[in-house]
């Protein structure tokens, strides 16, 4: 019974017989390591599969977010174009008046009206 390991001894440490000679470690440790290796590989495969699924979902979410942002930008650009088309500021009216073929007297009357309106809006705003 001297050759057997007691329960208190560590299985990793080589067993020492009473004669002082070291004996080889039990083959049980080697068998346990061989059994554990496939499990680790299976865990790695499972972990990599889970990681790939997570990254796929993340990429899909990012693509959806980018698509939403692009739609939002396009909508804002359309709204801005529509707002500029319906913008009838005094400056824009003067620019349009300059492109029209109108007599100098009519232009002078129009400028006087625009200036009055601009002054009135300036006073009302402040």
Description:
The radius of gyration is 43 Å and the shape is rod-shaped. The protein contains three helices and no strands. With 126 residues, it is mainly alpha-helical.
Task: Explain the layout of strands and helices.
Elements (H helix, E strand, L loop, with lengths): L26 H59 L4 H10 L4 H22 L1
Helix pairs in contact: 2-3
Protein name: No apical meristem-associated C-terminal domain-containing protein
Organism: Panicum hallii var. hallii
Mean pLDDT: 77
Figure out the total of helices: 3
Question: How many angstroms does the end-to-end distance come to?
Answer: 106 Å
Report the β-strand fraction as a percent range.
under 5%
User: What is the count of β-strands?
Assistant: 0
Indicate the low-confidence ranges by residue numbers.
none
